[in-house]
Amino acid sequence: MFSKVSGPIRLADRVAAILSEEIESGRIAEGDKLPTEVELVKQLGVSRTVIREAVSRLRNAGLVEPRQGRGVFVLPRRTRPLDLEAEASGTKSKVMQIVEVRRAMEGEAASLAATRATPDDVTRMRQSLAAIDEAVAAGGDGVDEDLAFHQSIAESTGNAVMVSTVRYLGEVMRGGIRVTRANEARRGDFIEAVRVEHHAILAAVESGDAAAARSAVRRHMKHAASRLQDADEGFWTETDDLGVDLDSAP
Asked: In the beta sheet, which residues pair with residue 74?
């Protein structure tokens, strides 16, 4: 039924996408049982761990249901939970689409943060920026620290839904962020540009200027998108876990 899976995109994502397509197209119908784990390993040429992770993704998306001692069955069609992780799949076009969503969401988060952030919140943001510099100086990519900075802005809004959404978008784009940071590492001016953009966001939040904070984030995301778009195509084939730092992107 399936051909072997290979390539730079995370294998679990690829397998989940293949199985989802079979289900959505009706080739594996509602109530049908998925091929066994052993059969999927043989047909797709991946490990059991990859198959289990892919099936877990399908379960979380509401597509299938494991039944004790019987196997994994396709559930009746219904409104599916949002699953950007599968949608992003590490492709540049999908990542760019998520960057647009992130631009809107994080722009609003920064606007709210400017009116709600406490001195302690601002301190955490400042510490996150310092951590990025330290990570880069130590030879790291600064991706985790970059995500932490944006997360600290969301947390300062006091809006739990905003916090969860920004965290989710950041994790989905983690691979893409690696691509942009790797691209920036080749250009000292890019690294400095990102640093200046981050500090502009912090300054606007700290000053309590909601409009300036929103503009600073949107400007940062726009420039990040441009840097991402200009990244050497090799970055997209050399990375096996593309979940972008839209930081370096829009």
From this structure: 64
Residues 120-142: b if buried by 16+ CB within 10 A, e if exposed: ebbebbeebbebbeebbeeeebb
Give the Cα separation of 203 and 194 in Å (integer).
14
Tens digit of pLDDT for each residue in 202-221?
999 999 999 999 999 999 99
Report the range of poorest mean pLDDT among 33-42, 45-54, 176-185: 176-185
Which residues does 108 contact at the CB level (< 8 Å), separation at least 6?
Answer: 162, 214
What is the DSSP secondary structure assignment for residue 242, as one 8-state letter?
A: -
- Phi and psi at 233, nearest 5°, equal -55, -25
User: What long-range pairs does 72-81 form, CB within 8 A, spacing at least 24?
Assistant: 72/33, 72/34, 73/31, 73/32, 73/33, 73/34, 74/23, 74/28, 74/29, 74/30, 74/31, 74/32, 74/33, 74/34, 75/30, 76/30, 76/31, 77/30
Dihedral, CA atoms, 221, 225, 230, 232, nearest 10 degrees? 100
Q: Which residues pair with 67 in a beta bridge?
A: 71
Taking a C-beta distance cutoff of 8 angstroms, is the pair 228, 180 a contact? yes
Quick: pLDDT tens for 47-88: 999 999 999 989 888 889 999 889 999 988 765 556 666 555
**What letter does residue 7 receive in the DSSP assignment?**
S
CA distance 59 to 75: 9
